[in-house]
Amino acid sequence: MHLHILGICGTFMGGIAALAKALGHQVSGSDAQVYPPMSDQLQQLGIDLYEGYDAEQLEPRPDLVIIGNALSRGNPAVEAVLSQRIPYTSGAQWLHDNILQDKWVLAVAGTHGKTTTASILTWILEDAGLNPSFLVGGVLPQFAASAALTDSNFFVIEADEYDTAFFDKRSKFVHYCPSTLILNNLEFDHADIFPDLAAIQRQFHHLLRIVPEHGRVLYPATDQAISEVLAQGCWSETETVGAASEWQAQLMQPAGTAFKVLHRDIEVGQVEWALLGQHNVHNALMAIAAAHHVGVPVQVSCEALRKYTAPKRRLEHIEQVAGIDLYDDFAHHPTAIKTTLAGLRAAVGNKRIVAVLEPRSNTMKQGVHKDSLGSALALADEIVLLQPEQSSWSLAEAVPKAYVGTQTSELIAHLVSILKPGDQVVIMSNGGFDNIHQRLLTELRALHLGES
Asked: 323 with 421: CB under 8 angstroms?
């Protein structure tokens, strides 16, 4: 069967393309911008790629078109699909119909930590010999891929609440039929499609409705928003994870690089690993509890974490130049920003932290989180912010102590002027941030060579 994917270069749709190819389908696709690394990954799989959305790419006529949720009416390719009555579906629906119905699905949902938790869980199952299939929102270093299809009964998926397609406004995760469901946390986000937290909670309620009776829902006992979702109805087994819960962690190191695992107040294992921060300890605890549900002993999970490497862009150390350390992180919500900085602070002590943020998400651009942004960045010694284009609110007013620029070049020039050996620079964005990481490194290298 020939499948053509519109919006193929997104992480999710690129993963769908890889899974479809693994099933033996002929796969092609297009996107508004086709560029590495996703384009390289897809071309290595033998997938034909087209730049843009002209109707000619649908010739010869594919058997099925899979349409990404970034596309809407008025798009030339979408209009051609409808006019020519070419069969079409969403990525989430295709995944359900062709793969997930025959798998034990372990789904990771929540506002924060989905990619990391799904990555940890995938690695635990792999190290335990269960050879899981997976689809996550980042490249897993252990697998050099964001998706893989195996002959295992287990499938790990990052289950986000964003809508499915222009013709299906349900959250993608309602298509995933999980038997093990992690609810990491729940806050208001995606202001471009959800009017308030209650609307997101309704989608999470729909997700709980499809977890079978023998399935298990893992959630933090102290998360009020999730407790309110569960109060709407839950028909499956449940276990609590985190503070005041059945599964708990006790830090052995302030930075979170070592901790004890407790199940119902009994120590069942210890973890020593490379990740930083209380939030990652929580992510690991969720993954350990989920793996335990499918039969992986806790000690096996703890040993797997000794060898675990985090996904790209999760407080990823890029390079050290002239004694200045540069990190890349995906954080874009105030809670994620705060936990990222807390993890780094616990690791580096009194060293100066310089936080560089691009408020790129639709929610941020609308100013939904402007009142909490200053407190989220409070652990940073220096704050450097990029004012979003066409934004109705002022970053300078929201975070008075910050340096605010309207161009990435301004930010780089300011950073070069203030940085000194020992500084820890963490760049946070859910996009490319105009390649600021490499541009800053280039400037710092040149300056260092000039002074040496």
From this structure: yes
pTM of model > 0.70: yes
Q: Which residues are paired to 325 by β-bridges?
A: 320, 424
Q: Which residues are annotated as a binding site?
A: 110-116
Report angle CA 398, 333, 199 to the nearest 5 degrees.
110
Q: How confident is the model at residue 419 (pLDDT cuts 50, 70, 90)?
A: very high
Q: Structurally, what CATH architecture does the domain formed by 99-306 represent?
A: 3-Layer(aba) Sandwich (3.40)
Say if residue 452's pLDDT is above 60. no
The binding site for ATP consists of: 110-116
- What DSSP state is assigned to residue 367? T
* CATH value of 2-93 in 3.40.50.720, 2.50.20.10, 3.50.50.60, 3.30.1490.100: 3.40.50.720
Task: Specify the pLDDT at position 450.
Answer: 56
Which of helix, strand or coil describes residue 212? Answer: coil
Residue pLDDT, tens place only, 125-146: 999 999 999 999 877 877 878 8
| 147 vs 15: CA distance, rounded Å | 5
Q: Which H or E run contains 359? A: none
Q: Which fold has domain 316-451?
A: Protein-Tyrosine Phosphatase; Chain A (3.90.190)
